[in-house]
Structures are given as C-alpha cells and as structure tokens.
Amino acid sequence: MCLLARVLCLMARPRKNDDEVTPQALYMRERRKTQDKERTRQIRSKAWRKLKLEVLRHYSGLEVPECRCCHETMIEFLHLDHGFGDGAEHRRQLKKKEGVCGTFSWLKKNNWPDNLGLQVLCSNCDFGKKDKQYCPHELKCGVDLNGKPILVQPYIIEERPRRARRKRPEGETSQEYQKRYKQENYERVRAVKKRAEDAIRFECLQHYSGLEIPVCKCCQETMSEFLQLDHIDGNAPEHKEHIQIFHGKTIRGGSSFYHWLKNNNWPDDFRLQVLCTNCN
C-alpha cells in the first residue's frame, strides 16, 4: 500500500470517543500535550534570552551589558529605553506599518538602526524616568548621562491665598469652564496633582513596609521613585476583580489603587509588600 492510500485510510477511520479510549491512552495523550507545551516554552524562552542578550550587547557596546545609569549587570533587570521618550509611538508604528510586535527581532532584522536614541537601562532607572527626561539618579547628582549639567528645574508650586469662589461666565458650561481653567493653569494643576499622588503613594509604602523610610524587601533600595507595591501571592488581577465586585470601584492604574487603599483603611485581604521595580 502506497503512502497516500495509508494516509487516506487513517483519515477515513472514525476517531474514538473519550468513552471508548482506555484510561492509559487518555493519560498518555494529556501527558504528550503537557510535555510538548513545556518543551516549546523552554525553547522559546532560551531563544528570547539569546536575542535579548545580543541586542543589549550591541546597544551597550559591552560584552557584559550594564545599565547606562547605575551599572546594573543582571540581564533580567535590563532592557532598552528610547532616549527621546517616543518608545510607545515607535512600537505603534511597527505594529501598524509592518505588523511587528517584537522590537528586538525588528532591530536585528533591520541591521541595528542607530537613529532611535536607544540605550540600555535597568527597570529601576527606566521606571524612575516615567514622563520625565531624567532618571532620579541624574537629578540627585545634577549631571546627565553625557556628563552635562542638568538645567531643568522642577516646577515650584506657589501657595496662593484662598479667594472667593470665581463665578462662571454666563453662557459657558461647567465642563467648558473647567477645561479652560486647566489649559490656562496647566503646569500648576499638573504639579499639584503630582504632589498629592506622590504623598498618598509614599503613605502606602510606609504602611505596607512598616518603616518610616520605605525600603525594598529584597534589595533594600530606598529611593521612593523606584518602589511600588507587589502582591506576594501573585493575585493582582483577582484583587482588582474583588474590588470591582464587592466595592464597585474600577482600578485603572497605580494612583487609583493607592487612593482606594487609603480610603478603605489599609485592608489586609490580600498580602502586599514593598519591592523596587527591578525585584518586582
């Protein structure tokens, strides 16, 4: 019998139902699925780590990649940072124009482009930058990564005396008035909001670390810009779902989570600890 006829016979043969298959055959079928899935995961993880190391070596210019700011060398903590602050836009363009989701594979395929301002940073330094131009390490010493003095000064909030409530002009809705006020006082509104959010976040870190000066439970990092709350049991999604079901509050980000913790008197339903971004 030729190979084609054998394949056609196998395709035409009716497949047995699970009730007709022996328990041993069912066990072996499930075991193969599990083993294949685990083996595939290990192969992909190994290939990804190799590609990541190759990318970090190129953009750091070192055989052993390190963070450009704090010289961290553990590869698990390192990743690429867009020095121009346009990383999200770059990823959107890759996905929209070329259908590519992996930046590392795209960089290697396009022969390591150098016009994107890419640099190697650890998670702490990258997280500390956020929407700012400089890492907290740079702001602390007053010199940027290129050795130039930092001339950017933080916005100073001037304390204004309380005045009588301003009247909304006739013909202007409340939403229009609030929008115009925020546009006219953008820097002040942003600085006041940032100061309030940082104060609540620091209070949460103090409570869940049990210390006056919060520290990372793993590496003892003390800079508050790098610290965040971590679910010890790894059940952050379940915690958000629990809050939404039983408290009617949707958690959309870190700020709303910190506000909810404070407003609900530091609940202990889910175990929390303080970690830095690297360790988390």
Low-confidence segments, ≥5 residues, pLDDT <50?
none
User: Which class of secondary structure composition applies to the elements?
Assistant: mainly alpha
Termini separation comes to 60 Å
Strand content: 5-15%
The total beta strand count reads 4
What percent of the residues sit in helical stretches (DSSP H or I)? 40-55%
Sheet with the most strands, sense and barrel status: 2 strands, antiparallel
Roughly what is the average pLDDT, rounded to an integer?
79
Q: What is the general shape?
A: extended
Q: Write down the secondary-structure element order.
A: HHEHHEHHHHEHHE
C-alpha-based Rg, rounded:
27 Å
Report the total helices: 10
Strand order of the largest sheet: 1-2
Question: Can you characterise this structure?
Answer:
Helix content is 49%, strand content 7%. With 280 residues, it is mainly α. Helix 8 packs across helix 10. The radius of gyration is 27 Å and the shape is extended.
